[in-house]
Design brief:
Elements: H1 5-16, E1 21-25, E2 34-40, H2 56-80, E3 86-88, E4 95-97, E5 99-105
Parallel strand pairs: 2-5
Antiparallel strand pairs: 1-2, 3-4
The protein binds zinc ion.
Zinc ion (ZN) binds at residues 47-48, 50, 54-55, 57-58.
C-alpha cells in the first residue's frame, strides 16, 4: 500500500473536489511513486482561444494548478511523516520528487 496516496487524495479533494481528483500508485512500482490527475473546470480560466494548443492563459493555469497541487501534497506528506521518492536534477542543484501531476480541463 502506497502511504503517500491517502494524505494526497485527502488534501487535493478538499481543494479541487473529490470527484475531480485521482491519486494512484505509479505503475509497476512498490511505493513512493505517485500519479495525480486533476479535472479542472475550463470555465474558471479566461481562455484567449486555443488554436489547437492551449492559449497562454490556459497553459499558465495548468502550470499553476500542478505547482499548487505539489505544494499541497508536500505539506500533507510532511504532516503524515512520509516522503515521495526523489532524485537529483541533472545539475545536482535540486531534488525532484517522483510525482506526476496532470491537469485536464473539463
Ligand atoms: Zn485557452
Amino acid at each position: 500500500m502506497n502511504k503517500l496516496i491517502k494524505p494526497a487524495k485527502k488534501i487535493l479533494s478538499l481543494k479541487y473536489g473529490h470527484k475531480n481528483v485521482s491519486v494512484k500508485n505509479g505503475q509497476g512500482t512498490a511505493w513512493g511513486w505517485v500519479n495525480v490527475n486533476i479535472d479542472y473546470p475550463k470555465s474558471a480560466v479566461q481562455c484567449l482561444g486555443d488554436t489547437p494548443f492551449y492559449c497562454s492563459n490556459c497553459s499558465k493555469a495548468i502550470q499553476a494548478i500542478s505547482e499548487e497541487a505539489e505544494q499541497l501534497m508536500n505539506i500533507a506528506w510532511q504532516e503524515a511523516g512520509v516522503k515521495p521518492y526523489s532524485f537529483c536534477s541533472d545539475n545536482n542543484s535540486s531534488e525532484i520528487n517522483e510525482v506526476i501531476v496532470q491537469v485536464h480541463y473539463i
